[in-house]
Amino acid sequence: MPAPPSHRRYTPKRPWAPLTDAEWAAILPHLRTVVMGQGRPLADARQRIDAMFRIAATGQPWHALPADYGKPDTVSRHFRRLARMGLWMRLVGACADPAAPAPLRRIEHFIVRAARRAMRVLGMDAAVMAEKLGLLSAMPVLPIYLTRPYWFAQVEGEMARLLRAHRDAPLALPLREMRGWLRLLRFYAGKPWHRRWAEP
Questions:
Q1: Residue 147 and residue 43: Cα distance in Å, rounded?
Q2: Three-state SS for 83?
Q3: Does 28 lie in the same domain as 78?
Q4: Which of 56, 61, 80, 95 could make an SS bond with 114 (beta carbons 3.0 to 4.6 A apart)?
């Protein structure tokens, strides 16, 4: 179910800055969970996450990454790998938790921006998840553009049932009801076009 309206929010912007010790400590358990048993531990993990947050928060292309952070291709490849392993959406879920620690709250903007960038890898299912969690800034599109496959199928089924029930008497088909179902069907299908990014 979608988050209650009081939990649906846009995250305030925050200029990028390197992670503090407390902020890194808040991220580390989530990072360890998703990478456990996935190859060798990364020696410079904190610097690598800093690099990813820098690009995500500033909206710059990967090739703009300063040389101190390593090769842009390597960092972007690692970012996509972490996306597929579920780190960014896991952190989004942690931020949506009312009991989230203060250091994690402070970097929520970095996290939702990273999640938005990861949508290119994860697809729209992750955007639907972000909406359900109530962190609208993690969505790459406005909520009205989202496709909702489950509800689309439910409405489609109801329309098919109504048509079958009036198969022998099509003139008795309740047109007002059908129009209502059709409006819902269009809504749950999402919009066919959207801007690349929604406003944060």
A1: 40
A2: helix
A3: yes
A4: 56
H-assigned helices in 97-148: 102-106, 108-122, 124-133
Q: What are phi and psi of 9, to 5 degrees?
A: -155, 160
Distance between first and last Cα of the chain: 23
Q: Which domain holds residue 57?
A: 5-140
Q: Is the pTM of this model over 0.85?
A: no
Does 41 share its domain with 130?
A: yes
Given 140, 159, 184, which residue is the final one in a domain? 140
pLDDT digits (tens, 9 = 90+) for 154-167: 788 888 888 888 88
Residue 199 is which amino acid?
A: E
Q: Which of 106, 143, 124 is nearest to 9 (CA)?
A: 143
- Number of domains the chain contains: 2
Give the pLDDT confidence of 90-117 residue by residue, as tens digits. 999 999 998 999 999 999 999 999 998 9
